[in-house]
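Homework help thread (please don't just give me the answer)

Our assignment gives two proteins as sequence + structure token strings and asks us to describe the second one. The first is just a warm-up. Here they are:
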Amino acid sequence: MPLEDPHQLPLSLGIPLEAYRSPTLLDRLRGRDHRFNAFARAKNMVLLGRCSVHEIRDIESKYGVNLAEQYRSEWDSLFIEICHHFLTLHHRLDTSHKAFLREYAKCFGLEQRADNLANVAAKRVFFEKVREVIADGESDDQKLLMIRELASTLGVSAETASSTYNDVCGRMLSDEVNRLIAESGMISDQDWERVESLANALRVSVRFSPESKSRIEECRHRWQIVHGALSEVQITEVHLKRRERCYFKGQAEWYESRKVTRRYDYAGLTGRIRIVKGLNLRMGSVAVRPVADESLHLIGSGQLFLTNRRIILLASTGMSKEMSWRDILAVNIQDWNQFELERGKGKSPTIRVTHGITDQAEFSSLLAGRLLRESS
């Protein structure tokens, strides 16, 4: 029902009133207020539910400003917020709302773009309502009918309504996938079935961008290496023992820690006594102390084989190496294809895989960890 004054409406947008600024020294010398306060007064008048062309022009005259030109983006944003407020509450604009918005458009020069701004607000409200309706991760005929009716009421086209629905569902699916990845960096077969079930419940297809799809496949591949069935690699370079099976063949570098003397320090108590100019007596002793740092040293590089019993390096340069999983306490992952074999006694080598020939080669660190776990 329209109010007696069509230029006044009770608003509760949740937007704080604009703070006024103190006049600058130049403003005080000229006996005037800060020019920004013209905008602040006009905006606060709107936020308090009043919108009058006459009052806005009085403010512009007093401060010597053109509010429509100087604060165009601010007035556009506020117009959208007001439309959003009305549409959120009522899903439509009644006579009093339209009168208030028309006056607002006249005040700040929005007549040519008011309809477009109102459409932006309507689409935003529709997006929020769709997200609210399917927040439980399910959709049915009744919900879809409700969404279509809401689109009609808000003046949202069928094409926009469909794309908005798909957008909301796509975000829900992405949020679910991101949650799974954040938990362990992997996606199991059961996890992916839940994602597909969510898509079916929402009545949409599982579609992701090429970048997201590649990331999902990578995370599913990681899970497969850690928990799924491993593919056995047939090799002739190494004689396998009874019941020994190879699961990785590739090129790698074998590093071990070595102490390297970097510099020499001098230690001991010393002193010096001056006898005469140019003649000093040195007292005490000075001992030379080597300072050594540990660094990784390349031992050998060549073909690397990971079996269920051993890790083997057939070096083409340097030394060949072999180690049983039983002698290893842990696999410390430094990168997906670089890992340290932690030992209780002796040196703990670091392996850097440079090339692999199997699907399991992309995450050789994970494979090494699994083979260690299953060997115990």
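The one we have to describe:
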Amino acid sequence: MSDENLKILLSYLRASSQHSLEELRRQLLAAGHPPEAVNQAIAEFQAQERPIWGLALLVTAVDLALLGMAAAIFFLAMEGRLEKDLGKNILLGLPGLYLAQIVIGAILFAFPGMRRLGRGLLFGGVLTGVVTFLAIGGLCVGIF
């Protein structure tokens, strides 16, 4: 099915979302759309409609766990238990990892079958940035 036909079917599904999917399926089939195209459009519509907060929170939890491990390695390196450059490199590499996560999320968002994963990575990356910013801001306010 062409992207244009998929966009038309998806816009119809969004505009008629007050009806059940089974009713919408019958209407689209009665209008002469091929069953494969209708099934693909409904699958895409359902994938877009599922909430992504669970995925975004999972991404944030993993990101914050990585941040915690990096901070622990950094402090161990500063105490002399590990090589100092290792701690610095790991801590400085995290922003690059988070940026890559957001860029990959944006790229995946461009593909219809991967939009949910892309949105989860994007929102999880943004949420991680906000939480990290608030934590650093709280530390700075607490110190001064």
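TA reply:
I won't write it for you, but here's a hint about the kind of observation we're looking for: The longest helix spans residues 115-143.
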